[in-house]
Design a protein that fits this description.
CATH topology of the largest domain: Aspartate Aminotransferase, domain 2
CATH superfamily of the largest domain: Type I PLP-dependent aspartate aminotransferase-like (Major domain)
CATH class of the largest domain: Alpha Beta
Strand content: 5-15%
CATH architecture of the largest domain: 3-Layer(aba) Sandwich
Number of helices: 11
Shape: globular
Largest sheet: 7 strands, mixed
Bound molecules: pyridoxal-5'-phosphate
Structural class: alpha/beta
Strand order of the largest sheet: 2-8-7-6-5-3-4
Number of strands: 12
Number of domains: 2
Distance between the termini: 36 Å
Order of helices and strands: EHHEHEHEHEHEEEHEEHEHHEH
Length: 378
């Protein structure tokens, strides 16, 4: 049996999610835009899922626009909202699906200010707000970083931006289902999320759009999703996302505790066996499921491969854009050297992980790390 400790890359589809989706795929093929019974049933399914995501985030269902994932949600917002001459404030710890569109927009005349994190991976709200100008159109700050799990002070940033009349966005892809997100008390204008990080299917997500900011269509076509995204809805995927939201609402409090126990047990197991470790983060200001560790003096990608051979899946950097052995930009932004960043791996727990699995991972690492260090020693 393999051990999967890469829940920040993606999560196993929960059985009740697969069941709900399979019911649609097998028996309910209607197009939600059709006016007869089959269409009405499909529409009802899509809207029921919208209500579930709305309940999870404490927002109005009509502020949800289904997308093909968080990358699409981020691109829809940034390309829709920003024009040459606009100023945007963001951070150095954004996921590439925010960082890359902003870099492209910058080359087209949007001015971008990027705020650096501290050594634990968090930005300070005052620094973000201090960069806001009279011509700032948007402040976009990730809710929880995918590599370290660091939680950003989104509520304080939103408060300060509202006082200055500036719109706010957060890529909350890692946070939804793993952290408390109560948008009734955090009046963000835009938020991005993705089903596959919380036990749902890949290829479906949402952009939350509050108020009436007049975003232009991202996909031109049949006018679905309040005119923002033409194209027949991914009904089965959306239904799966809805079920994943039901589970998240029911389980969130337990998840926070359970993930934290497993993560801390893993850290204790590593500390007992291995020296030269550093936790890249801050236990009190990060997702409870994530442990990003530097193993002084070795190459993370070698460790990842050695663990894979032992039946253990973890990540060196972010899996969504892995395949390269470039040191993590996030860890560099946190002040690590290239060697320190390369020596770091991410272990992230979630549904299906138990004590015996994290104990086994600590034990295997306890054997592998000294062996690899010895082999790599000059
Ligand atoms: C913070 C963050 N934003 C966006 C994405 C992209 O999500 P999707 O795979 O749904 O496009 C990811 C995926 O790893 C992520 O972690």
């Amino acid at each position: 049996m393999r051990i999967y400790l890469d829940h920040n890359a993606t999560t196993p589809v929960r059985p009740s999610v697969a069941e709900a989706m399979s019911g649609i795929l097998r028996a309910e093929f209607g197009n939600p835009s059709s006016v007869y019974e089959e269409g009405a049933l499909a529409r009802a399914r899509v809207e029921a899922a919208r209500s579930e995501l709305a309940r999870l985030l404490a927002i109005e269902p009509r502020s949800i626009r289904w997308t093909g994932g968080a990358t699409e949600a981020n691109n829809t917002l940034l390309f829709g909202l920003l024009s040459p001459g606009d100023h945007v404030v963001t951070t150095e710890i954004e996921h590439p699906s925010v960082a890359a569109p902003l870099a492209l927009l910058e080359s087209r005349g949007v001015e971008v200010t990027r705020i650096a994190p501290d050594e634990t991976g968090c930005v300070a709200a005052e620094t973000v707000l201090g960069a806001v100008r009279s011509d700032t159109r948007l402040v976009s700050v990730i809710w929880a970083n995918n590599e370290t799990g660091s939680l950003q002070p989104v509520a304080d940033i939103v408060d300060g931006c509202r006082a200055r009349g500036v719109m706010t966005h957060s890529d909350a892809t890692q946070a939804v289902g793993k952290a408390v997100i109560d948008l009734a008390s955090v009046p963000l204008d835009f938020l991005s999320t993705s089903a596959h990080k919380l036990g749902g299917p890949k290829g479906v997500g949402a952009l939350i759009v509050r108020g009436d900011p007049k975003l232009p269509a991202y996909l031109h076509g049949g006018g679905q999703e309040y005119g923002l995204r033409g194209g027949t809805e991914n009904v089965a995927g959306i239904v799966g996302f809805g079920e994943a939201c039901v589970l998240a609402r029911e389980e969130l409090a337990d998840r926070l505790v359970r993930h934290g126990e497993l993560r801390d047990r893993l850290w204790a197991g590593l500390q007992k066996r291995i020296d030269g470790l550093r936790w890249n983060g801050d236990r009190d200001r990060q997702l409870s499921n994530t442990l990003n560790v530097e193993f002084e003096g070795l190459a993370g990608e070698v460790l990842v491969q050695a663990l894979d051979v032992e039946g253990i899946a973890v990540s060196a950097g972010a899996a969504c854009h892995s395949g390269s052995i470039e040191p993590s930009k996030i860890l560099l932004a946190m002040g690590r050297t290239s060697e320190q960043a390369r020596a770091s791996i991410r272990l992230s727990v979630g549904w299906g992980v138990d004590e015996s699995q994290v104990d086994r991972v600590a034990e295997v690492l306890g054997t592998l790390v000294p062996r690899i260090r010895a082999a790599e020693a000059p």
